[in-house]
Amino acid sequence: MKIYRDNIKMYDAKLLKLSKILNRISFLRLFIFVISSTILIYLISSKLITPFFIVFPISIICFALVIKHHNKIAYLRKHTSFLKGINESEILRGKCNLEEFDTGHKFINQNHPYTSDLDIFGQHSIFQLVNRTTTESGMILLSEWLSEPAPNYEIHDRQKAIKELSQKLDWRQDFQASGMHFKNKKSDYYKLLDWVEAPVVLLKHRRTYLAVAIILSVLSFLALYFYIPYFDSSNWYIYLLPLITVLFIINRILKKVKPIADNIVETSQENINTLRGYLTLINKIESESFKSKKLYELQSILIKGKYSAYNEINKLCRLLEFSEQRGVNKIKMPIKGNPFYSLLNSFLLLDIYLIIRVEKWKSKNKAFLKPWSRVVSEFEVINSLAGFYYSNPSYTFPEVTEKNNYVHFESLGHPLINSNKRVSNNFHSEGQGDVVMITGSNMGGKSTFLRSVGVNLVLALAGAPCCAKYGQVSNLKLYTSMRTQDNLKEGISSFYAELSRIEKMLKLIESSHNVFFLLDEMFKGTNSEDRHKGGFSLINQISKLKTSGIIATHDIELAKLSGNKMLVTNYSFNSEIKDNSMIFSYELHPGICNDFNASELMEKSGIKILTNIPNK
């Protein structure tokens, strides 16, 4: 789209400008450092102590301000780079060039009712096409939306939210770019939740621990105060004894709480980026206004009067950042801390205060972190689908009807096929027992059409826009059997794998309403006679059940027999040979296929087809 190309040009110009500013600031930082150092050295060498103590803090303040400004511009340049990348990604998705995007491979489940057959996850998948999340929890939630139909009311609310957010292009891209600063492939969302929900230890006895910490801190400084005057006396060890005693007690207490403090530091290392990501995204959500019911209700979970999710998570981030000064001395996870922390901890028991403040935060907010992360995740998923819709304005949001087994699409296409090559078809299936059988030549489009129907049903029931001009569907339970493969490890042939899926499908149909199935080349792992007999038997059985669906096959005789018995409605994809080339229209027609191209394709591959084949 033109707007993405325009944005790339704008961000390129902005990046050039910011790089020049950053270079100037870097030069200024170096200049201040050199000049300040020269002046201070001169003042010290000239024994001008008073001017030194005036110039020194001024130099520190100036240097700190320049560094702060440098970091701000560096962040802005990085943010602009992310925005440029987002627009470049939108162009790639528009061309269906998805190689560089996350495949969502960890969500692949061969036993799922439909995700493996419909390319929901994996290479060149729907997940790659729609995913614009930056948090682990957002990615997990998107996989859930694509793996399970939502209730009708939820689909309706999602559609309105997606439509509203799709129009907020700048906010959406800024929201996505903000999360990219803290994208962490090693983050473990569930570990963070477990840590927050873990029982507190010191908080139950905080008054005792705080009193002990204060008393021992006072005693340690008093012992040190009384020891210093006698540091070089002959009996100095007598005055050192109280200090050693107090420090020994402090050390014993610190050893007792050490595992808890270590755990806080380790948690900081593992989750600080995740929390900062949530913090940034929550700030964007809290500061924007929304009209749709779903977005408004999600936002209200983050803001309840003076209680703000942003403020609370910001407090935890600061505590965890402070904990990193402590460090951890472990073989598996050594973290270098600040030596001043260790020194002060020996006198002030800083670990006690750190643990109590963290546990106080956990006690106050452990019930809220999961809902807060859920809000961020839902916004990320809605933002992903809104970006998908904005890039495909011709797509539609299907109506969800209360009718049973109803599927109606006009100008239906596959979203993973480039729009320049995509051929759209109409499809209608109404009522239980309505089975559609599609015949066609090799590479004629049967499997692609089945996946087009399946993928768009998945999108529709997730509340997402579909690759169609118009749609109306029931809230269906989708089941597919299209890519059954053998499993050498478990000793399962492709035929038995297919039988297993068919068995699960029949059990689902018996226990559920509104099941819609997609079957491609039934029983292809057995001989032609058994395949024909088994195929007809299954169709006969299915037609009497409370279900509907599509079956694709090469078996013309099966299609004729099933059609004559009024068990199926026949449709087909046809091809023709022109100028010694195979031409595919990919258009769906009523009736049984009237041509097959397997022989022609084999001849093109160098196989000499015999016209008269002996019976024996």
Description:
The chain has 616 residues and is of the alpha/beta class. It contains 18 helices and twelve strands. The strands form three sheets. A six-stranded mixed sheet has the order 8-9-10-6-11-12, with helices on both faces. A four-stranded mixed sheet has the order 3-7-4-5. Strands 1-2 form a two-stranded antiparallel sheet. A hairpin with a 2-residue loop joins strand 1 and strand 2. Helix 11 crosses helix 13. The protein is elongated and about 120 Å long.
Layout: helices, strands, pairs:
Blueprint: H1 2-45, H2 49-94, H3 126-130, H4 136-145, H5 152-166, H6 169-180, H7 189-197, H8 206-227, H9 236-286, H10 293-302, E1 303-304, E2 307-308, H11 309-323, H12 339-348, H13 350-391, E3 399-401, E4 406-412, E5 425-430, E6 435-440, H14 446-461, E7 470-474, E8 477-481, H15 494-511, E9 515-520, H16 528-542, E10 547-553, H17 556-564, E11 569-578, E12 581-590, H18 598-604
Parallel strand pairs: 3-7, 6-10, 6-11, 8-9, 9-10
Antiparallel strand pairs: 1-2, 4-5, 4-7, 11-12
The biggest beta sheet reads: 6 strands, mixed
Helix content percent band: 55-70%
Query: Which word captures the global form?
Result: elongated
Estimate the mean pLDDT confidence. 88
Radius of gyration: 34 Å
Number of helices: 18
Beta-strand share of residues: 5-15%
Distance between the termini: 62 Å
Main β-sheet, spatial strand arrangement: 8-9-10-6-11-12
Low-confidence stretches: 486-491
Return the structural class. alpha/beta
What is the tally of beta strands? 12
Order of helices and strands: HHHHHHHHHHEEHHHEEEEHEEHEHEHEEH
